[in-house]
Every structure is written in structure tokens, then in C-alpha cells.
């Protein structure tokens, strides 16, 4: 099928050459290209080359086989409705002629014109048919353009989703490979810190601890992105005193602000909002972290404003500001303002990407106003609670530490296993250590007591996982021993699987303080 009616020609078929020549002459005088055809076969050949309409006298259909023409019309694409004008004798219209009714069913888009007719009548009918045909092609062109645009958009979305999946897998793999050796360093540094060291050695260990802690912050940011992308972050909404959040910010950042010679001001606020305390605090901390990172002099102000049924919590700084064209980009991964040298002391550029994900999760819109050289204001809109501040119950107290005695440690990394055993024993625990489920079960059979706790790495040798090891030990023990799963892997499916099994999950590198807290708060 041609892309447009070729020359908008009108094919003319009449049993006598005179009738065809008369019709052709009338159309030619009106500037319409008419072309006579010898018979139906010739007509079909011309139609295949492209035409805008056809004029056929009724005599052609009397006793003739028009199945080939009907088949050609049926084979047209769905958008095509080829116009045919049938010249009839007086009384040959569909209201009086059974043949005309039959032609309407066979030819579909047919117009009957009784002879004799005025030449202008034929011209008007043909021009109407040509306009109708032209509109069909125009509509098809628009549909094809729309279809192409839709296909291109779908392809772009698929490519973006694939790129995001690939990025998540690379991020998870890189995070796992970095966390393994870092975990060993954490445990060995923790063991050194509890020993008898001279001032110089103690300073070295302290500096090493700070460096490891900074690296852990960067890796934890990667983990946060993976958790949010995996959709496994549980939201626990309750009524929260905003003053509690602001007091935490003051306590956490006042010393850092003083070290940077910045004036950190946190305006008091008595409002109560309804949100997830930990996730909302993460948004505000990221705002304050950014403000302190990019403000060289002046102040950082944290304040609140009521906006209808919401509270707008704002963090304003006098920092370097953000160009207008960058203000949407900064919420994407690894985008940083004024850090072309990729100074790792300024982070990875994941803070605001995490803010965007938490904002979407909580349905708390975030916004930014900024001017280069004058500073920025980041804000989050949080629903106000319906209860007065005095009625908000205090947050629950954490569970009291419980004693633990015998710990079974399963890890196929010799350095990590050695570090875990060393620090656990320094804390007074007895330990059993193994590198696989089979070895752990053997150690269990040779033990006079069952372990109070299992600590297992997720990735073990020969495709075995920590899930397998924990399940195997529990079966051998005949009881559901509490367990901690250590992993450096941030793949979303692993995070979801651990949550579905109700396992306590600790992500490498686990600091000695975090490990001790997890042990003290183990659950039955």
C-alpha cells in the first residue's frame, strides 16, 4: 500500500469508452486526474499502484464477476476505506434497487449518483471522496507517528529499567566484595582496641577506627539505596513530637558545626506529625549533612512552618547554592555539586537519592529553593497529627539486654571467622566455629551444650548459604536457636528472603559496638 494516494488519481470504468471519456473530460476540466480503465482486471492493476477513488457505471456489475474487486477491498488495511462512486440509471439507488443494496455490502464505502447528472454534481461527489481518502492517509500517518513515539518511549523505559537492574546488581556485588575484608579489619581493630597499648599505638588504632567508620558510612549508603529499591523497608507510622527530632539534630551536629565555625540554629517547634520516626529523621539528617558539607561560612537554620494540614520542615543554609539546571539532578545517584574532584570526604552523592526514595515511600514531598552563592533551602512536607502534643505517648524503651553464653560462628572466610571468635571470646563468650553447615553440625554433636546463638555468614562455599546452615543446625539441635545472619550482599532478593524468614540481619562491616548490641538484644 503506497504511503499516499498516488497523484490522487480517479479510476474510471465504464462498458463503453464514450461514458468513460465523458467522465474523464469532466474531471479533467475541474483539475482532477481521471484515468479510464478497460475492464475490472485493468482497474485492479491501477488500484494496486495507488488511487484516490474510482468511478464505475452500474453496467459493469450486471452479470459481471466482481469478486476480485470485493476481495481487493477486503484485503485493505483496517485504516483504509476506499471510496467508490457508482453511476446508476434513474431509480438505480439503494432505496429502489436490490442490486444497489448488494453493492453496498460488497463495496462498503460506496456513493450512488443517478444519471443524468450535472457535471458539477459529479465533480462535487468526486472531490468529497478524495478529501475522505486524504483524511484516511493523514490519520494513518498520525497513528504511525504516535505508534513510533510510543514504541520509542517503551524501549527507552525498558532500557532504563534494565540499566537500573544492572546498576543494582553491580552495586550489590561491589558492596559484598568490599565488606568482606572490611569486616575482618573491624573485628581485628576492635580486638586491638581492647588490649594494652601505648599512647602512639592507641592513636594509630583510633585513626584506623575512624577511617573504617567513614568507609562503613559510605557502604551503608549503598545498602540503603538497595533496600529502598528492593521495596523491603517497612514503614511504621505514629504520632511524633517534632521537638524530639529537632533535639536529636542539635545533639548530633552542634559539635561538628562548631568545628566548622558555623552557626547551627534549630528553632523550637511544638507541632506533632504523623510519620515514620526513623525514616523522617533520615531525611532531615541528610538535609543537615548536606548543609554542613556545602556551607563554608555563615549558618544553618532548621525550622518549621505550618501549611494547611502539613508541617513544612526546612533546612536553610548560607552555602554555595545550586544552579537552577542542577536542582532536579541532585536527587539522582552520585550527583554532587562542587565536587568535580570526587573527594570522598564529601560522600558518594547518595544522600539526596536516598531522600527521594524515602520521600516517595512516605508520600512526603520534598522541595528545594537555591541560588548560587547565597545558599539553599531544602524542605519536606509532613502530615500533621490529629492529637495534641500532650497525648503523644513516649517511644517504647528498648528491650533489656539478655545474657548469652555459647555462640556458634559459621563463616568460610578464615580471617572473618578468626576475628569473630577472637572478639567474642574477649567479651567472655564461649565459641564453636565452623566453615560450613556440615562442620557446624559435627561441632554441635561434640558439644556438651547447645549454642545460645548462631552467627552465620550468608555466602558459604559450594553454593551453600547461611540460610542453609542455620536451618541445618536447628534441625540437628531440634530447636529454633536464635540466629544472626551476616552478609556483605545487598541484592534485593536476599534482603527480602531474610525478612520473610524473620532472621535478624546484620550487614558487613559490623562494628564491634553494633555486634555487641545485637548479641545483648537477641530474641527467643
From TrEMBL:
Carrying 4-aspartylphosphate, the residues are 457
Q: What InterPro entries would the database entry show? A: CheY-like_superfamily, HATPase_C_sf, HATPase_dom, His_kinase_dom, HisK_dim/P_dom, HisK_dim/P_sf, Sig_transdc_His_kin-like_C, Sig_transdc_resp-reg_receiver
Q: Which SUPFAM superfamilies match?
A: ATPase domain of HSP90 chaperone/DNA topoisomerase II/histidine kinase, CheY-like, Homodimeric domain of signal transducing histidine kinase
- EC number(s) on record? 2.7.13.3
Origin superkingdom: Bacteria
GO MF, any single term: kinase activity
Where's the Histidine kinase domain?
Answer: 173-386
Q: Does the keyword Transferase apply?
A: yes
Its keywords, alphabetically, are:
Kinase, Phosphoprotein, Transferase
Catalysed reactions, semicolon-separated: ATP + protein L-histidine = ADP + protein N-phospho-L-histidine
Q: Name one Pfam family in it.
A: HisKA
Q: Where is the Response regulatory domain?
A: 406-523
The kind of enzyme this is, by top-level EC class, is transferase
By what name is this protein known?
Answer: histidine kinase
Q: Which lineage is the organism of this entry classified under, starting from the top rank?
A: Bacteria, Pseudomonadati, Pseudomonadota, Alphaproteobacteria, Rhodospirillales
